[in-house]
Amino acid sequence: MATLNPGFSAESRSFSAIESVPQLGAIASANNLAIASPEKSLARSSAGTGLQGQYYQGKSFSNLKQTRADANVNFDWKRDAPDASLQSDDFSVRWTGRIWSKHSETYTFYTHSDDGVRLWVDGKIVIDHWTDHSVTEDQGSIALAAGQPHDIKLEYYENGGDAVIQLLWSSPSQTKEVIPQSQLDAIAAPAPISSPPDQTSPMIPVTPDTIVAPIIQPQAVSDNQPVVLDPTAFINAMSKDSITTTVDWNSGKGGNTAFGYGVNAYQGFRPEAFNSAAYKSNMAAMNPGMIRFHNASTMQDSSTPDGLIDTARQTWDANKAKSALAASFASFGQNQPERMINIPTWPDWMDADRDGFLDRNQFDNFARLCADLVKIVNQDARLNVKYWEVTNEKDNDYFVQFRDNSGWGGLKDSSKPDRLDELITIYNKAAVAMKQADPTIKIGGPAIARPDLQPFYVPFIKGTSDHLDFFTYHYYASGSASTADQDVFNATRFIGGYTKTIVEALKAASPNRTIPAMLGEYNISWTWETRDPRMANYKGVVFDALSIAQALTNGAAATLAWNEKDGIYGKMDDQGNLRPGGEFLQLLNRYMIGDRISTTTSNENAITSFAVSNTAQGYKSFLIINQSNDSQQVQSNFTGWSPRQSSVDTHTMSASGYSKKTVNWSNLKNGIVVPSNSVILLTFAD
Asked: How far apart are CA 184 and CA 200, in angstroms?
């Protein structure tokens, strides 16, 4: 969909097009947000092409043997192999594509499998029974919109004996049946991936040197020469009117960037990551103000890469948790970031009927489980992790799926009310238990996927305000790698609007105690399957800069990028090389910590600015972000303060890579040529 769909989630991918959320227009208007028209739905094959099947030897999805088109998933291979290239036992299959429903209503998906199976629809895990078992029917439900493509991924493995896998569906208007080819469209198979479900083959490595020791050493620019990076940029910029940016150094915006610019540790509990010298070095280099430990697989058994649960004993794997956190602390020495540990959901045994909801008789047990992790980390290991986040993106499960108009409307079925009250109770019980384990900690959440959805978060805030120390929300701009750059960049304006309304709701619910709002995740794409290359290059830097500026300017206390390392989103790639986004975080955390300062620009559609003043460390910094596809000539006006030194350091990140130059202030204030899709950071000694 076009970039302005609110509240995308990289893991859940529940979203609504802006045309289906009439209230959003009022929100946008109230916050002076420009709304682009949605792009057309993805084209569909009139006949249906089935699903793309990738067949692997082994269970790890690392040894690809065969790729083929399957009309549907309706197989009983008995004790045979599905292909001559495979052995009859110990194989796995991943089917991917898009599914089209005939009706806009809640669909129930069913799998008949022997052995393990898991199903994602629109990025949400609908069925998860990844164990050895005889033929078993599993099911899960999700709302689908007719006439729109919905991403689907089905994974299956066979360990031994019979091999059966079928995929069926039903809805109030659809009889239960194997999903036919006519409702399925295959998409090109991705390259083999090494670690299901979220990791992908590596992107092309980007390996510039670190900011501390840049490849391009500072260059002196002679007096009265324009600040330009290349002749083409200069010619293009001179053909347009100059854009003026104004910084009033005496007029603070309120707030401080003391948290710094954070990052999600997606692989933070993965031994191969936290034991890696390159991983630890890059984390220290980025120097985030806050690290959020989050992975949707945290509640899996600790034998899996990201799991922390000792399933046999129905408790935490204390040694694994303590080892990961101790390694993180060791990486930073005396300069420690704040840390946030997210408890995304509950273990399987607390959802006996597998409906996706915490069983009502398990509320207190879940609270005790959360408190037990606090004891392990802060009492036993004495690591003093301050921030604890309860649940992740449960607004989709407990509210959105029960209501029409993508969560803004009434109940789809009056006999099935939403379960928001349950989520409030779950949070409050967990918060009380965790504070009893350590009264010094801060507890917050709920890490919402839909920051536009006031009907959810306003009641949630009111119901939890006595136990809510911070509020977290997520934002992703697009679900397609073909979305135009300008639409992706413009979508960041919604971060500002959502942040403003969330901050106002927090103030209204808690007028005497500040509850900070934190942008807990942000990036371009709400699904890793787009493999959007912009998230790993300089255009991702522009998006990050715009997102940060919008969130912090409108009252957020912290921003945390998604994520620190993987093949798609990571600020470092799978080989441990720091990408441009990681270098940018390093710049921000080195030069952009301080009190936020008021800035304006004469053309906000092209140039965004952001400034901080750090009196304690004696510097001021000014960020110029060019989100346009053209180079721009920018003139900077300062009021309330002027640099006392003639030279100014400039750090530029653009299509040409990273460069640092020392320029003359007299040249700079008379105009600087900012390349297209770039970020320039200016630092001054105070």
From this structure: 23
Closest CA to 392 of 300, 271, 297: 297
Residue spans of the domains in the chain: they are 51-186, 231-254+598-685, 258-591
Q: Are strands 678-685 and 647-654 parallel, antiparallel or unpaired?
A: antiparallel
Q: How far apart, in whole angstroms, are the C-alpha atoms of residue 92 and residue 156?
A: 5
**Distances in whole angstroms, Cα of residue 26 to Cα of each of 22, 34, 370:** 8, 12, 39
Length of the chain: 686
Question: For position 148, what pLDDT does the model report?
Answer: 80
Alpha-carbon distance of 322 to 309, in angstroms, equals 13
The pLDDT, as a whole number, for residue 253 is 62
Query: Could you confirm whether domain 231-254+598-685 is CATH 2.60.40.1180?
Result: yes
Quick one: pLDDT at residue 235? 45
Fold for domain 51-186? Toxin - Anthrax Protective Antigen; domain 1 (3.90.182)
> pTM for this structure?
0.70
**DSSP reduced 3-state for 665:** helix
Residue 178 has which token pair?
Answer: 């194997």
The 3-class secondary structure across 621-654, one letter per residue, is EEEEEECCCCCEEEEEEEECCCCCCCEEEEEEEE
Let me know: does 127 contact 179? Beta carbons within 8 Å: no
CATH superfamily of 258-591: Glycosidases (3.20.20.80)
Q: Which residues of the chain have pLDDT under 50?
A: 1-46, 188-226, 229-232, 234-235, 237, 239
